[in-house]
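fyi for ur records
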Amino acid sequence: MLLLLSCTRGSVDLPDETEPIDSSVPEDTGCESTTWYMDTDGDGHGDENNPVESCEPVVGAVIVGGDCDDGDFEIGPDIEEECGDGFDNDCDGEIDEAAEGCEPVPTFERRELDDEKVFSITSDDQDMQIGAFVKVGDQDADGVHDVLLSYTGIAEGANLFSGAGLAGDYVMSEAAHVFTYGGAFGSAVLVPDIDGDGQMEVVGVNGSDQGTMTLHASSSFGEEPEDLWRVTSTGDSSSFGQYDFDAEGDFDGDGKMDLSIGAPYDSEAGWLYGAVYVFFDWETNAPSRTRILGTESSTLLGIFNGAGDLDGDGYDELVVSQVQNSGNGRMCFHEGTALARRDSTLEIAACPRIMGDDDHYLRKGFAMLGDLDGDDAQEIAVNHNGRVGIFSGADVMGGYASYTFPSQALATIESREPGEGGPWTMDLVTTPLVALSGATGPDSQNLVLAGTWSEDSDGWETGIFLFDAQAVLDAGMARPADAEIAWMGDPTSSARLELRNFGDVDGDGDDDLLVGDPAADDGQGAVYLLSP
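which gave:
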């Protein structure tokens, strides 16, 4: 009997079929097998999914693996990553990775803004500019948010659109209710029922550059609103309520929303230091107030970003920003318990805060994201003029030490300035932030922001980007290309967009997004709804 053995798998020479084979005792050939990888493209690295065990060299195979595309000799571990081509050139498992100075290839779902608007509202009066002051609330208690639009220009006032059944295109004259006061009204907000009729009131501030402000309230539309009270700030041009005016926080824990009103040109503490006023019992003719004063000249304190209970003590905190002369600015979180000391004066420096750096400043942009890391405390997002950071609200509120942006952020969303590497560039500027539930999963929390977007640093578009907040936190850093959804449109002025959570209008389980764009329609402005 003759038995021939080869150490190469798949090439064993078999004896004549008529001769019996005795395989009970295998012969020791002394072969020490080696793993070879077929190298089809000849780049020196083989396909680890195609191994061959052999004692001798195998034609067309190499002993080094790691080739993720053995059909392309321009892809392999020895090849440098090429930015923007959409391939993993160096076989490290990442496409156009930022570590190589590349901007990741966009993987978001691109949607065209003009095709995605559930409804839109535009101005049909050249004296009426809309989009800068957008508020939402269920004014008529039908379970659906309504839209309150303050307008500026030669005419000033507020129009209310009932949210139920809104679909298609509207103009301001088609509003369900019109709210004006002597031809000038200023900014307005929706507040809980005052007069017991079961409907929310519209409260407007008739501010002036002379530092006076009259507050009005009414839910009886078509009638002259009632004057609640008048207050005068210090300084010749405080611009009461012309920039920020809201009723979001319950700072004294009495179950009622308190009014926050910005006066960026207030000079109580010094020339153009600015101030924020918080009014309690404002629905009476004898309100009490707490003032927050700026600490530097020309810093224009008076921009506030929202309110919410960050430390779980049952009192909301007021989030206020101040742009300093040094350019970095600070975002301060004033505790409700301190604000509730009525008829008192606070300084913006006396608060837990996040400080900017010399390259970016903290101004407009804040959102509460819920508990993302399982510590039973809120995570918050802040906009740092070109970079968004996620912080632990409990950590920030844990003391009066400054948190520095971005070094102490849990995660960031980074944008590229034009010409700074990578073809995909996004300029976040001072855009507001908003949190939406749903969209990326039943229990997901999403962060929406706006910016200008370019694929080649030449042609620009307005972009509204929706990120999975949990995914950003887990990754530690995200780029615009990592967004889940991107709505793209004409490059108007995305830095001025107003973003509002409009609740789940269409019943799909996801929050919808209301957008105010004061630069649209040649400066007349527009407001529209997007559904993720």
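The two ends are 76 Å apart (CA to CA). thats all i got for now
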